[in-house]
Design a protein that fits this description.
Length: 150
């Protein structure tokens, strides 16, 4: 995608495939998920989803979050309190945002070189969860039986 400049209102009323971040008037592509990224994202979100009632939270995938007046970020996994009023594009800090990082993605890349999220003061952490195939390989090296091992 070439650099696309637009207004926040236009961005919020447009669907992008895959969805894009909005930073200071510019629509920015996100990395396309690879198998390991998608599987890790599904695993993490399903774990929180299983505990959603007990922990009183919503576990959401690929949610647009308005982190400032000029920025909207897409969270891999977002945890929002069930007591928080529902907004289609949240403007209030969620409980947590989980980004599944690939080996090619530096942590500063998800904050675009400036800690917008730190200014916003919510608990954001880059997940160090390796892709599932890496976990399987590590388990096999330790002598653990996995579904893929004979």
């Amino acid at each position: 995608m070439a650099t696309l400049q637009t207004s926040l209102a236009e961005y919020l009323h447009t669907s992008y495939h895959p969805d894009c971040d909005f930073v200071d008037g510019v629509v920015q592509e996100r990395n396309w998920g690879e198998f390991g990224h998608g599987l890790s994202q599904a695993f993490v979100s399903s774990w929180f989803f299983q505990h959603r009632r007990k922990w009183q939270l919503h576990a959401l995938l690929e949610l647009r979050i308005r982190v400032s007046a000029t920025r909207v970020r897409i969270a891999d996994v977002c945890l929002i309190s069930r007591t928080q009023p529902i907004e289609q594009v949240p403007t209030k800090p969620p409980l947590a945002v989980i980004e599944i990082l690939s080996p090619k993605t530096a942590f500063h890349a998800i904050t675009n070189g400036s800690p917008t999220t730190a200014k916003w003061a919510f608990r954001m952490f880059g997940s160090s969860i390796p892709p599932i195939d890496s976990v399987t390989t590590a388990a096999q090296q330790r002598g653990c039986r996995t579904r893929n091992s004979a």
